[in-house]
Design goal:
7-stranded mixed β-sheet, binds NADPH dihydro-nicotinamide-adenine-dinucleotide phosphate
């Protein structure tokens, strides 16, 4: 058994119920063999064992009262995974599917993603099994205040800086920040994704989606290709999906389908993003209503069917494991050329293998392709500490440069170890090399 195999075995033995975490660890560790083989000193320092074990995981009770006076208790989590490169950084997810395994998988991914950005940020992730759907504004505020009443003692501008994720957008970040400030009596950059009137950064809202498209655009450019007239499918209709759609459309793509967790819309004339924004950002409604507002659009119950729509570009931007091996095979058979992951771990391990075996598919993995959000969060942190505000153009230009640099770093890392074009390996290796250097330099901690 190799060192990597032994560590993976150990992870499975010690975390038998954490299937998402095991999936993420398997995807990452199996690609690190060439680096591990080149550095026998890593095994002696138990580097991989330390990499896969969070420095700290906080689990807490979140009591809150609904509009009818009923008391609810949710579970709260913050996993402070790795601080070798900088303060813990990673979003908060509010969704009923959240459990320790999901937060650990996201946290592990986040370590390498943050390393890849080249910015001084460590990895963490948190959230709750609270379901924001159908809750009143007051209930959301009550929940966020209760959540922060425990979380505040564990975070700080130089310790751990959370942000948004599924179910946590500008509104929730605002309520969380307000409560932190009230408890600590300090107005600091402890959360990113803040509103522009209280320390947020321009382009943060757009950053993950725009960054995803900038990286795909670079992959296209190097192949003499572009987004112009590309039939594109974007899954999800949340923060990442909306701004991926916006930038792809600006670059000439024809986005024909999107979904929410109930079903998908197909609009052969090209998605009207103004209608999606009104539905999702303003009304907080369901995507089904798009088909009643836009002539020629169809609504289909269920999500999986979206991947049967023939497309040149697929941008999964909703959640983990939304593309399984069957959907991947259909996408490939229908001639997809680029698959770029906006969500975290949207493709199963089998789906990734299908994309990589297909000759003409460029597959850009999440930890590189969706790193624009956290990179811009780090830019927000810089602006907060310097009490500065950069213009949209400035932030957008920095974001684009970062995404292009990440693309080339992962491309070069894949080539260095003889796996040209395998960006899963490239991203994992490039992120891990920097992390390993920082961890080795800091001793056994
Ligand atoms: P949002 O909450 O804004 O949107 C999530 C979207 O995905 C919604 O349309 C939601 O539908 C849909 N969705 C969620 N769960 C499911 C499911 N089980 N099946 C089908 N659809 C689902 O989240 P974000 O856009 O912020 O995040 C999307 C993904 O991108 C996540 O994987 C997140 O980790 C990742 N990401 C986000 C970043 C950010 O900056 N926000 C940064 C990097 C990665 P519905 O409304 O019906 O629930």
């Amino acid at each position: 058994m190799t060192y990597v195999e032994r560590v993976l075995d150990d992870i499975k033995q010690r975390n038998p119920n954490e299937k998402e975490f095991i999936q993420a660890a398997t995807e990452i560790l199996t690609t690190l063999e060439p680096v591990i083989n080149a550095h026998p000193e890593y095994e002696q320092a138990a580097l991989l064992e330390r990499f896969v074990e969070p420095e700290r995981a906080v689990l807490f009770r979140v009591p809150w009262v609904d509009d009818n006076g009923k008391v609810h208790i949710n579970k709260g989590y913050r996993v402070q995974f790795n601080s070798a490169i900088g303060p813990y950084k990673g979003g908060l997810r509010f969704h009923p599917s959240v459990n320790l395994s999901v937060i650990k998988f996201l946290g592990l991914e986040q370590i390498l993603k943050n390393s890849l950005t080249g910015l001084p940020i460590g990895g963490g992730k948190g959230g709750s099994d609270f379901d924001p759907k159908g809750k009143s504004d007051r209930e959301i505020m009550a929940f966020c205040q209760s959540f922060m009443t425990e979380l505040y003692r564990h975070i700080g501008a130089d310790t751990d800086v959370p942000a948004g994720d599924i179910g946590v957008g500008a509104r929730e970040v605002g309520y969380l920040f307000g409560q932190y400030k009230r408890l600590r009596n300090e107005h600091v950059g402890v959360l990113t994704g803040r509103g522009l009137s209280y320390g947020g950064s321009l382009i943060r809202k757009e950053a993950t989606g725009y960054g995803l498209v900038y990286m795909t655009q670079e992959a296209m450019r190097l192949r003499g290709d572009s987004f112009q007239d590309k039939i594109t499918v974007v899954s999800g209709s949340g923060n990442v999906a909306i701004y991926a759609c916006e930038k792809a459309q600006q670059l000439g793509a024809k986005v024909v389908a999107m979904y929410d967790s109930n079903g998908y819309i197909y609009d052969p004339n090209g998605i009207r993003l103004d209608v999606i924004k009104q539905l999702k950002e303003v009304e907080r409604g369901r995507i089904k209503d798009y088909a009643t507002r836009v002539i020629g659009a169809e609504y289909h119950e269920g999500c999986k069917g979206i991947w049967t729509i023939p497309c040149d570009v697929a941008l999964p931007c909703a959640t983990q494991n939304e593309i399984d091996s069957e959907s991947a095979a259909v996408l490939v058979a229908n001639g997809v050329q680029y698959v770029a992951e906006g969500a975290n771990m949207p493709s199963t391990l089998e789906a990734i293998a299908t994309f990589q075996q297909a000759k003409n598919v460029v597959f850009l993995p999440a930890k590189a392709a969706n790193a624009g959000g956290v990179a811009t969060s780090a830019l927000e942190m810089s602006q907060s500490s310097g009490r500065l505000y950069w213009s949209s153009e400035e932030v957008d230009a920095k974001l684009k440069t970062i995404m292009i640099n990440i693309y080339h770093n992962m491309d070069n890392a894949a080539k260095k170890y003889g796996f040209e074009g395998n960006y899963v390996m490239g991203a994992n290796i490039a992120g891990f090399e920097k992390l390993a250097e920082a961890m080795m330099a800091q001793g056994i901690v």
